[in-house]
Design brief:
mainly alpha; MetI-like fold; 74% helix; globular
Length: 276
């Protein structure tokens, strides 16, 4: 094989390898959820199910707390996304478009927030949430998730606001628009890709968060999907059928959310990559 052919095939080889690494485990879990319990643990393992069955999904939906956990995760995920977006947008407008220049320094604090492992924050955060009487409530977990997502989102939104020319705001001011009208009708539509980016980031982060939810939520009826998966793994005899079917259904809301906000998310990533 010539060197030119190798150069052409090499990128496709790495793309195929990357697809196997990323998509392979997801496909394996999805196919395993359609197998019988005996076939899932059979040796040697099989890729395609010999007999397709939806029994695992029936057990999951009608004999476990999956639907309750799904509802709880949606409450926490959407609540975190909405509150993160509002907090970050107000803080960013004050820092980068208002008279609160000192807020710009918070972006350095945002970077420092990722230096320390989140597990070190469990005790102080628990004490704060307990002081607010929000232990074992979804609101307490939402506030903690916002604490985790807002710093990076605040740092991320700066590039999108800086890309909006100030001449546009000046023109709107000349036309008689108030500052809040400029924010709502001019700036926010122009930074739509940035809003999509931080909303996807906040939703996925809160959707998969386990550490703080396992500490702050005690009531069984308040548990989220990651806690439900942990309960299955904590059993002496792991039910791999329930585990795989739970995993598949837990991915669907995230996929749906990304399908709606993904276009803005991708535009945001591309825009961020092109900024200098």
């Amino acid at each position: 094989m010539s060197k030119a052919a190798v150069r052409k095939l090499l990128p496709w080889f790495f793309i195929g390898l990357l697809m196997v690494i990323t998509v392979g485990p997801v496909l394996w879990v999805a196919l395993s959820s359609l197998k019988t319990a005996r076939e899932i643990i059979s040796s040697p393992p099989t890729l395609w199910p010999a007999t397709v069955t939806f029994e695992q999904y029936r057990l999951l939906l009608f004999e476990t707390d999956f639907l309750i956990q799904l509802r709880n995760s949606l409450i926490v995920g959407l609540g975190t996304t909405a509150l993160t977006t509002v907090v970050v947008v107000l803080a960013a407008l004050g820092a980068y478009r208002g008279q609160m220049d000192w807020l710009r320094n918070l972006k350095f604090v945002a970077i420092l927030a990722f230096v320390f492992p989140t597990t070190l924050l469990i005790v102080p955060i628990y004490e704060v949430v307990a002081g607010l009487n929000l232990i074992d409530t979804h609101l307490g977990l939402i506030l903690v998730n916002v604490m985790l997502t807002a710093p990076f989102a605040f740092w991320l939104i700066e590039g999108f606001l800086d890309a909006v020319p100030r001449e546009i705001e000046e023109a709107a001011t000349v036309d008689g628009a108030s500052r809040w009208a400029i924010y709502g009708r001019v700036i926010l539509p122009l930074i739509g890709p940035g809003l999509g980016t931080i909303s996807v980031y906040a939703f996925i982060t809160s959707w998969t968060e386990f550490t703080f939810s396992s500490v702050l939520l005690i009531d069984r009826d308040l548990k989220t999907l990651p806690m439900g998966l942990a309960d299955i793994l904590a059993q002496y005899n792991i039910d791999w059928g329930l585990l795989t079917s739970n995993t598949v259904l837990a991915m669907i809301p995230g996929i749906i959310f990304f399908a709606f906000a993904g276009r803005l998310f991708i535009r945001g990533l591309v825009a961020g990559a092109l900024k200098t």
